[in-house]
Amino acid sequence: MTLKIRFFRLNTKTSITYVYTFMKKPYLILIILLITIAAVAFQFKPVKKVVETVKATIETPNLIAKDSLSILTRVKPPKGYKRVNYPKGSFQEYLRNYKLKPFGSKIVNYDDSEYFWQGGHIGVLEVPVPKNGLQQCADALIRIRSEYLWEQNRKDDIGFNFTSGDYCSWKRYAEGYRPKINGNQVTFNKVARADHSKENFYKYLNLIYTYSGTLSLFHELSEVDDKNLKIGDMLIKGGSPGHIVMICDEAINEEGQKLYLLFQGNTPAQSVHLVKNLQNSNISPWYQLQKDAVISVSNYTFSSSKFVRFK
């Protein structure tokens, strides 16, 4: 006759069934007994792993204040760290205090559809997503920088290079100058009346979104050493496609070690969002940033990239 012995693994939903053809020989009983002991011993290894996983989950610090509506109040520094101070009115303080939508808000694409993966963020910034689909990863950061300069009445500082290398300023655009593009050749001519309105400002930004991007910023902006990083600096990989994220908060411990928060836009154009650290849950959403490190943020992994800073 046939004797079936079934052993269940603790870490799976499957089982192992051993089938033996029963013979009237005593040594078969011994074999069965040895197999049973080995199977039971095998169970202890997965049990230990499960216990360690549960322990790690329990000990992972919860740094998120879900009822808070700014980057500053949404995320707490890890134990032993404190936020780095910056002057009131600085770009650094502006970013740190940026407003967030309620916790759990979803990332939405420019066409009002939900982004296919909602597991990589802990906050969505209050940055409108234009329906034209132009405000992609680099463009979102260009917008945030430009709006800060506008609010600080530093409008003459607003300007960016096209991918061709030609500089396009808000000041000249407001005066009525528009680019004429012929291949790689760009000329500017006064073809419109002067208009310094906020509505025209966003038309200017749409022009920048069209002809600028990660590649232009990669070549235009000065590189920053990883030892001198501060809020507002960006990690960038220039290309088509490339990607870019911005530092929006900074904390330091007594040994001088620093951690950073990052936010990003994306392609297709979508909600700007504060990203989780999917590689280190013990400090997430904070990141350790080092030059030449392979750094994963939500849907993108940076390598052969650099840190840059707006002028």
How would you portray this structure in words?
This protein is an alpha+beta fold and 311 residues long. It folds into two domains: 58 residues, no CATH class; 191 residues, no CATH class. The protein has seven helices and 16 strands. Strands 3, 4, 9, 10, 11, 12, 13 and 16 form an eight-stranded antiparallel sheet that branches. The chain has a two-stranded antiparallel ribbon with strand order 1-2. It has a two-stranded antiparallel sheet with strand order 5-6. Strand 5 and strand 6 form a beta hairpin. The N terminus is likely disordered.
Short description:
The chain is α+β, with helices and mostly antiparallel strands.
Summarize this structure as a short list of keywords or feature phrases:
single chain; 311 residues; alpha+beta; 2 domains; 8-stranded antiparallel beta sheet; two-stranded antiparallel sheet; 7 helices; 27% helix; globular; disordered N terminus
**Count of folded domains:** 2
**N-to-C series of helices and strands:** EEHHEHEHEEHEEHHEEEEEEEE
* Regions with little confidence, pLDDT below 50 for 5+ residues: 1-26, 36-59
Envelope shape: globular
Largest sheet: 8 strands, antiparallel
